[in-house]
Specification:
- With about 450 residues, the protein is mostly helical.
- The protein is about 65% helix and about 5% strand.
- A hairpin with a 2-residue loop joins strand 2 and strand 3.
């Protein structure tokens, strides 16, 4: 406790860090406030939203509601959240491997990055228009007719504009946090939306367990121990790296010597992050959507079995798809050929490995070997919530036992703590830990 108090004092002494933390908290508070502002033209009576909240309790809509911090189920001006921007970013990133123009922009440095960001924003607006109309159509089904105080056409047009403006405002908040605050703004907004649901789910879990006679308190202790163990295992997955040694040739320029030192390339065990889970969940939603289109009762029942999130068919398919998508996303984000070329240009080589093609093959072989355990571990974390629900854990709290929620929380918190620690160490204060340093997702 004394170490913690001393660290907080050191943080307060650094004016730049203090102002950055204050601005970050202020902007996150603005985001949370906006998630409770209901769309104009809807009666804010809580009884009107019971069906919508029931619809967003699980499934893909539950995932969207979690990422938006509950704004989706509140019919808020921030209902679409930051997900359209993330979807547009993923599309642009994937196009970078197929479209030569975007490939050239990626190599142009800062000017290319600005053009790509502009393209991403335009695509985000297009996605927002379609998602906005779809969201409003769903509201018409879920909310009673008396909840709408405007005509259908005028409500749809005005609300689509408001929803698009709300998501673009969230994106602006994220950029301000990244530039003027602490941490990655977009990630922080997603994290705060997820963590906002943690207290409520914890209270529900404690209440349900304490209502049990005899063993309720013991079960809570066991759950908390398992929860902490899962968090520790997730931290190992996020931070796990394989260090490949790289030797740089010695060069003499004037009277100074350059190179001649050994460094390391940190190849991540989980280079794909949470993207394989997001891709797999999106594809798993397809059979659920198609279940009602089949006339055959057997086929319809087979497709509907994928809607059982604790069932064997859903979880084994989800597990295998996460492994496949981990390899796929790692292959398109980690380029051994480019790494080999960069090393060769800078006079670097892996000891015992010839520069050029042989180095590229070696790096590709190492990535393939470390991605296998990483993908299996990621797949296990993905299906852990299903095991938790099967063992009687409340469905809302079970989502924090693994999956996208836990990976985002752990990754964002580690990144933020790493930035705070860098400010402390830069001004010759002790870091956040008594011994060692926080490596974060980008540390070596």
């Amino acid at each position: 406790m004394k170490k913690l108090i001393e660290t907080l004092k050191n943080i307060y002494k650094i004016e730049d860090l203090r102002s950055r933390l204050g601005l970050t908290l202020l902007l996150l508070a603005v985001y949370r406030f906006g998630s409770f502002v209901i769309l104009p033209g809807i009666d804010p009576n809580p009884a009107n939203f019971e069906s919508l909240r029931s619809q967003t309790s699980d499934g893909i809509l539950g995932l969207l509601n979690m990422f938006s911090g509950g704004a989706f189920s509140n019919a808020s001006i921030f209902a679409l959240g930051i997900m359209p921007y993330i979807s547009a970013s993923i599309v642009i990133q994937l196009m970078g491997f197929a479209v030569p123009y975007i490939q050239r922009l990626q190599k142009e440095g800062e000017s290319g990055r600005r053009k790509i960001n502009q393209m991403t924003r335009y695509l985000t607006v297009i996605i927002l228009v379609f998602q906005g109309w779809a969201y409003l159509a769903n509201l018409r089904f879920q909310l009673p007719e008396s909840a709408f105080v405007m005509g259908t056409f005028s409500f749809n047009v005005s609300s689509t504009i408001v929803l698009a403006a709300g998501s673009m405002f969230i994106m602006w908040l994220g950029e301000r946090i990244t530039d003027k605050g602490i941490g990655n703004g977009i990630s922080m907004i997603i994290m705060i939306g997820i963590i906002a649901r943690l207290p409520h789910s914890l209270v529900q879990e404690f209440a349900s367990r304490l209502a049990e006679q005899g063993k309720g308190f013991i079960m809570i202790i066991i759950e908390m121990i398992i929860f902490l163990f899962v968090i520790a295992a997730t931290i190992l997955l996020v931070q796990g790296t394989r260090k490949v040694p790289v030797q740089y040739a010695k060069r003499i320029v004037g009277n100074r010597q350059y190179g001649g030192v050994r460094q390391y390339i940190p190849l991540k065990v989980n280079a794909a992050g949470v993207m394989p889970i997001i891709f797999a969940q999106a594809i798993m939603f397809v059979p659920i959507s198609l279940a009602g289109l089949f006339g055959s009762e057997t086929m319809s029942r087979m497709m509907s079995s994928f809607s059982d999130y604790t069932g064997f068919a859903y979880n084994i398919t989800m597990f295998l798809m996460v492994i496949i998508f981990t390899y796929f996303y790692t292959a398109i984000t980690v380029n051994p050929n480019q790494m080999s070329d960069d090393m060769k240009k800078n006079g670097g080589f892996i000891p015992g490995i010839k520069p050029g093609k042989r180095t590229s093959e070696y790096l590709d072989d190492v990535m393939s070997r470390i991605t296998l355990p990483g993908s299996i571990f990621l797949g296990l974390i993905t299906i852990l919530p299903a095991f938790a629900m099967a063992l009687g854990v409340n469905s809302e709290f079970a989502h924090f036992f693994g999956g996208t929620s836990l990976l985002i929380l752990v990754g964002v918190i580690l990144d933020t703590l790493q930035q705070v620690e860098s400010h402390l160490l830069m001004r010759h204060y002790d870091g956040l830990l008594k011994s060692g340093r926080i490596k974060g997702r980008t540390g070596a």
